[in-house]
Write a structure and sequence with these properties.
The structure is a homodimer.
Chain A lengths: L15 H9 L7 H8 L4 H4 L3 E2 L7 E2 L13 H35 L11 H11 L8 H17 L7 H4 L4 H9 L7 H11 L8 H30 L5 E5 L8 E8 L2 H13 L1 H6 L4 E7 H11 L3 E3 L15 E4 L7 H8 L3 E4 L10 E2 L7 H19 L11 E5 L3 H9 L8 H8 L5 E5 L11 H12 L2 E6 H9 L5 H7 L2 H13 L1 H4 L7 E5 L4 H15 L8 E5 L5 H12 L4 E3 L9 H15 L3 E3 L3 H28 L9
Parallel strand pairs in A: 4-5, 4-7, 5-6, 7-8, 8-9, 11-12, 11-14, 12-13, 14-15, 15-16
Antiparallel strand pairs in A: 1-2, 3-10
Helix pairs in contact in A: 4-6, 4-9, 4-10, 4-24, 5-6, 5-10, 6-10, 9-10, 10-24, 11-13, 11-15, 13-19, 18-26
């Protein structure tokens, strides 16, 4: 449902709070919704991937008249190069996030980052065990030093040994496949350098070779993400179920309202912590309290670990300011629209950039530094309190829309919940439910918002359709933001939307975990974290594969990014495919200009890796295709189980 | 002089041999010259840098109607991001080349690459000394192992210590400047990863911050290039003056003609060596001999060290096949037009790709492997001999155009030549000639061909104009290919084109080096090597700065890339600027869509780093601007020398 005309302005988002703000705004301020309309029509050469700007002779655009670039590059070369550069940028972004956390851990171990500590030693032990680090005779700091050193190795090493975070988190057969296909990376940084070199003018013209390198690159994305998640859990705690609220209605007129936006928990955790200590300052300024709230994946990070409410997700990031009630928006890295600065000028919000590699001209910049993280947090909150003082007496208009949200479902949390049903092998509770037909399989909802489609609509539709069809859903990133805002991430949604099987399964979990949940009930879908936490979702694939004793392409698991937008999403989708998972994308990436590359994505990938892409912009059709992919896998699982029973052999990994 | 109409097809290159081939061809085969015309008109959004394809909401194109991207990014952000991604790709390409040689050295040291050896221990000692490696008690292999280990560190290290190849090759004041401006890189790979992350959607919106990161990236390009050159010299020998010929006339009907194309000496050196051993096989096939010849920078590599004649440069790479006389084109990495494959199909040429990251569908692929380099070279030459057999009896039409070429001017070779005039301080011969006004300064001619301008024309015009104005010229890359093909790289050109001062200076060098030159005379310009060898040209800046006792932005040295084409060229130009050198580019890069970014390149860069860009497509005007930049520096040098004399103080670094 693309937005193409002025008429569509009224229905450009499915988020009622966003609509309310847009409809009530009289400032005339420009938002992404307006800029999207102004940008129409968009260039179809770029849109289909056949515009090459890799040398200064270009741009070359493939058409009937000019069917090759000036250098002779075919559309397949151009499309493949553009695609894998996007994967490279995505992997670099996640890697940067992960490396930042590795560096913080190292600073902490050198006593240079006093605000940080090992919050979750149990996670440290699990990670160390997984990496094969002997724990005996080592204290936690020594152990963490070894973990961090191995993590850094996965970033920089030059050897051809497998990356430790890849080898130790996928099933053995998968690792063999990656080695066979020569896409097991040396390291994150080396592969980034390799890929950028391979796509230079006059380098690789072979699309298959390029795409394989792109998959190698995508696996580095996975490694960087997994490292980020593991170390974040160690530093800030592994998420446990938590209940809070989402959408603009969480803002209050009489609180200092601070939005935490971006992707990295390093600073936002400190702000949440320090905000809890600064109530006196807030009260002195006439505020009832300081209220932190999240946007995008920084929001997910502090939601998962601190129960911070969700303000909004990617596409509507500019709108909370337009209520007049947002005092500060603190941003770290990634997916921060530069447009927020212009909007803030019309209202009362302090935009505070914090990272050396993500500045916005004219914004406040408080340079984050590990060694004085709390002082920096204090400085930022001070700016918000100043803004609150200026705001007093001015009109604010907050749409009274908010929904209950239950989040915090790390693998550890799922293990705990499922363990209440199946204590010895917790995830057997899930495989049994799939084997019995109670559940149709597992789907990850992930990814962003993208103005090519109506904001949050595809997420919403696909979730309801899958729920109705008894799919167990995990969710991350701005997809999670969407579900939270729309009221889908709570127990009421189970009753409203879940099919009988899913409802029964969740009810059973509720029942078994009654004491632990302390009166709360489980939601319709299980929020695993920020987009960097998609590694948690793949850990679920690995656990299920091990539970069934099969390779990952046989697990009835599908990933879906209904509103994919960023290069990170391209990268995540690519590693899901390389790791054996059908992956739906609701905004067709820029590959359709080459039927060959498109064919690799949609079909050849499956022949080689078992995973493949599904492009489908219509959410209802997308849900059908996702269900079809699940059915195919559950059917095969069942068939082989029956055969194994008939011939009295174990269901082996090699079937 | 852009080519825009069919009419222009007859004058699309200034290379007479190329014109002859194009005019006589009746095959109708399509070349880059045709494809360029078909590609007109080209997109001006891309051309000016204001097309953003960094997220899947794009492409966003900045115009009056849509003055910001959908995310709110201004033109300055979009242009800066695109630019520094180009620098990143260029640095990655050079880095890949350098790392490949580091790996080969390491394989050799493990006795796994028997064809390679330390050809030039003296170079090894010089490099070790420069890096501060103690040589005592170590044999050559041990020393090389230490050098290679430090080289690998400059690629991968995570520490903030300066890169060794940067710190040890620039003057102290320059290193201080880079540190002050926070653009001294951690390492090549880390900076590539950083830059790709910093340009992700919703990351940095600040153009100055982005451009500074781009300069940091460009310095990594310099590091990778310098490592490549140093190690290549150690493995294959440091170039010394050598005389041969250039252009299509070097092909002979009755020889097995093998073109070596690309950038890396690792395989091409082996092919040249093995070709000399395979004359019996060639004779058995009815050929008089095997003749190797070079295209692009692989051509420069084997010209500089082995005296292999020059076939052609970048833009005309497809044309030698159209004579019917080229039996094989062996390609390694970079600047290889995929178009060569289609042309080869119409003629008799075997296209042989050799590297895992640079394949062309349908071409022969002989996978290069260090451990069997000679066997691979033999296999490739076998393919060429097969082609020769098939060619016998068929009509060939070779334009009888060729020129004498004298090349091989490494810094060591220049040191040697100048030392004949000024034995104690060889480069004082050059600084004295500039101080006295005999020479106007030093210019590096570098870079590619680009169909936006008439092939070789700008090189040719600028060289002549600078020669007439007594500029001492060094030259690299396809600029050198151009000069060689056009008859400018020999002693006859000195007599024809040099002004009185330059002529007298070269004559004096000839006289002082009479015995060494063995009857040969020095050329009009001094060929320092392939484009990766531009580090040699910067070594010349450093030596001159040290000779004068000044920082590099005071050295009367200008770099010029009259026909820049590749991302490598963008990267090289950027480090020249960061390292204090005015840099002319004859094809305006994709930055003019942001007056802010353009202003940084043309002006702000000078305020901060002393170097700056000069965009000028007209070669005569370009020469004037280059001369003006030289004059400004020589004038300042003179003024300060006079003041130093007057006040009886030494000409200090701090003036």
């Amino acid at each position: 449902m693309a937005i193409t005309s002025e008429q569509d302005k009224k229905v450009r988002t499915a988020d009622k709070a966003a609509i309310s703000v847009l409809n009530h705004d009289s400032s005339g301020v420009e938002t992404a919704f307006d800029r999207y309309l102004k940008m129409q029509p968009q260039c179809n050469f770029g849109r289909t991937g056949v515009c090459c700007r890799i040398c200064l002779q270009g741009p070359c655009r493939i058409s009937k008249k000019a069917d090759k670039g000036i250098c002779g590059a075919h559309a397949y070369t151009i499309v493949a190069r553009n695609l894998i550069r996007a994967i490279t940028a995505g992997a670099s972004a996640h890697g940067d996030h992960g490396r930042h956390i590795v560096h913080t851990v190292m600073e902490m171990l050198k006593e240079k980052a006093p605000a940080y500590s090992i919050e979750d030693p149990q996670k440290l032990y699990r990670v160390a065990d997984r990496l094969g680090i002997a724990r005996e005779g080592k204290n936690d700091r020594e152990l963490l030093a070894e973990v961090a050193a191995l993590a850094l190795e996965d970033f920089i090493k030059d050897s051809t040994d497998p990356c430790r975070w890849l080898e130790s988190t996928v099933v053995e057969e998968r690792m063999q496949k990656l080695e066979e296909c020569n896409i097991s990376p040396r390291s994150i940084h080396t592969t980034i350098a390799e890929t950028m070199a391979q796509t230079h003018m006059g380098m690789d013209a072979d699309p298959v070779n390029l795409i394989f390198q792109g998959l190698k690159m995508a696996l580095c994305d996975y490694v960087g993400m997994h490292i980020a998640t593991d170390l974040s859990d160690i530093l800030f705690g592994t998420p446990k179920p938590v209940t809070t609220e989402a959408n603009f209605g969480i803002m209050e007129e009489d609180t200092v309202n601070i939005a935490l936006h971006g992707h990295n928990p390093l600073l936002s955790e400190m702000i949440v912590r320090v905000a809890r200590q600064m109530s006196a300052e807030a009260e002195a300024a006439g505020a009832r309290a300081i209220k932190c709230m999240g946007i995008c994946c920084t929001g997910n990070e502090v939601l998962m670990r601190q129960g911070v409410p969700v303000l909004t997700n990617f596409l509507s990031q500019e709108l909370p300011m337009m209520t007049g009630a947002l005092d500060a928006m603190v941003v770290d890295v990634q997916c921060i629209m530069p447009g927020i600065k212009a909007v803030s000028e019309c209202f009362n919000t302090r935009i505070v950039t914090t990272m050396p590699n993500a500045k916005i001209p004219g914004a406040y910049h408080v340079a984050f530094a590990e060694e004085e993280a709390e002082a920096k947090a204090r400085e930022i909150i001070g700016l918000a309190i100043d803004a609150f003082k200026e705001r007093k007496g001015k009109v604010v208009s907050i749409p009274q829309i908010k929904h209950k949200v239950t989040a915090g479902f790390s693998m550890e949390a799922l293990d705990d919940l499922l363990g209440a049903v199946s204590p010895d092998q917790p995830f057997k509770a899930l495989t049994d439910a799939i084997d019995s037909g109670q559940l149709r399989g597992v789907v990850l909802l992930a990814g962003c918002n993208n103005l090519r489609v109506l904001q949050d609509h595809s997420h919403n539709e696909i979730i309801r359709e899958l729920a109705r069809n008894d799919v167990f859903m995990v969710i991350t990133g701005c997809a999670a933001g969407s579900a939270a805002k729309m009221g889908l991430m709570n127990d009421e949604a189970v009753e409203k939307y879940a099919g009988e099987g899913l409802k029964a399964f969740i009810h059973k979990l509720n029942e078994a975990n009654k004491d632990k949940l302390e009166g709360n009930k489980l939601p319709l879908l299980f929020h695993m974290g920020s987009c960097v936490d998609n590694s948690r979702a793949y850990d679920l694939v690995t656990v299920l594969a091990r539970q069934w004793g099969i390779d990952s392409p046989k697990v009835p698991f599908v990933a879906s990014a209904p509103e994919a937008m960023s290069e990170k999403a391209v990268s995540i989708g690519s590693w899901f495919v390389a790791l054996g998972i059908p992956t739906h994308v609701g905004v067709v990436p820029e590959v359709t200009g080459s039927s060959l590359v498109n064919g690799i994505a949609l079909q050849i990938a499956e022949d080689v890796y078992g995973g493949y892409f599904i492009w489908e912009e219509d959410p209802v059709k997308a849900a059908q295709k996702i269900l079809k992919a699940l059915n195919e896998r559950t059917w095969k699982l069942k068939l082989h189980r029956q055969m194994a029973e008939k011939y009295d052999t174990a269901l082996s990994k090699s079937y």
